[in-house]
Amino acid sequence: MSGSASQKLSFQAMIFTACLFPFYILAATLTNSAAILTDLLATSFDLTALTACWLVLRLAHNSHSGKYAYGLGKLENLAELMIALLQTVLVFIAGSNAIMRIIHPEGVSGAELGLFVTAAAVIGNAILNRKATRLAHETRSPVLAAQARVHLVSAISSGSVFIVTVILSIFQNVTWMYYLDPVASFVVIGFMIYNIFAMLSSSVASLLDQAIDEAGQLRILKVLTSHFDDFDELGDIRTRQFGGKMFVELHLGFEGDWTVAKTRAVVARLTDAVRQEFKQAGDEVDVAVVLIPAHGTEAEAA
Question: What share of the chain is helix, strand, coil (3-state, %, to 5)?
Answer without folding.
Answer: 70, 10, 20
